[in-house]
Amino acid sequence: MKQLFTQSVQLLNAHLGWVLFVGICNTQLLSGEIASNLSLLGIIVSFIMGIIIYGRIIAQIQGRDALPAFKIFKENWFNYIIVTMLLGLPLFLYAQLSKLFPIPVEFSIFGKEAIRALINTLAIYVLPLVFIKRLHLLAILAGIVFLIQNFKKSIPIIFMIVCMFFIYAAMWFWLMQQTQSDISLFSLLPVMALVNISVSYLTFLIFTAASLVLVAMPLTKSKPRL
C-alpha cells in the first residue's frame, strides 16, 4: 500500500501545476450570469486538461514519450466523454428521482455522495483502460471485472475514494449551513477552491494508482487498439 501510494504521488507531482489548475477551474461560482458563464468555461477547460493530464500520466507510467497535447485530446476525447456520461447516468437519475420524491436535503446530499463514491469504486480501473486500451463501453465491463479479480490490490485506492466521499459530503453540509446565514456567497469561494483542489488531486492520484496496477498486469501488456 505504501509503495503504491508513494509511487503514485511521485508520478502525479510531475503534473502538479496542471492538477491544481484543474481543481481551480472546477470551483463553481454560486450565482449570477457572469458566474454561470465562468463556471461553464471552467468545466470545459478542466474537461480538456483532464484528458491531456490522464494521457501524459499513462505515457509516463508506460515509459514512453507523451504525445502532443492536441493529439492526446484528439485520440481520447470521444471514448472519455462516452464513459464519463455513462458513469454519470446513475447520479443524473438520482437527481431526477429526488425531484419527484422530495426528501430532506441532508439525506439527498448523503445519497448523492454515496452513489458517487460507489460509482468511483466500481470505475477505479475504467478510466485508465480508456486511455491504455482506447476503449469506451468495453472499458466499463473490463474495469469492473478487473476490480473484482484484484479487489485486495485495490483496497488502498478504495481508501482514497472513501476520503473523497467524506471531503465532498463535509463540504456540501458546511455549504448548506453557510448559505442559510447572511454570509456572502462570494466569501465561500476560497474554501470551495481548496476543497476542489484537494478532490482534484485525489481524483488524479486514484487514476495514477489504478494505472500503475493495470500496467503491471498481463491484461494491459498488449499494444493499445487504435
Helix content class: over 70%
SSE class: mainly alpha
Q: What is the H/E string? A: HHHHHHHHH
What low-confidence regions span 5 or more consecutive residues with pLDDT below 50? 30-35, 222-226
Shape: globular
Major sheet: size, sense and barrel closure?
Answer: none
| DSSP strand count | 0
Count of structural domains: 1
Distance between the termini: 33 Å
Per DSSP, the total helix count is: 9
Query: Proportion of β residues?
Result: under 5%
Supply Rg.
18 Å
Averaging pLDDT over every residue, what do you get?
84
Summarize this structure as a short list of keywords or feature phrases:
226 residues; mainly alpha; 9 helices; 0% strand; globular; disordered C terminus
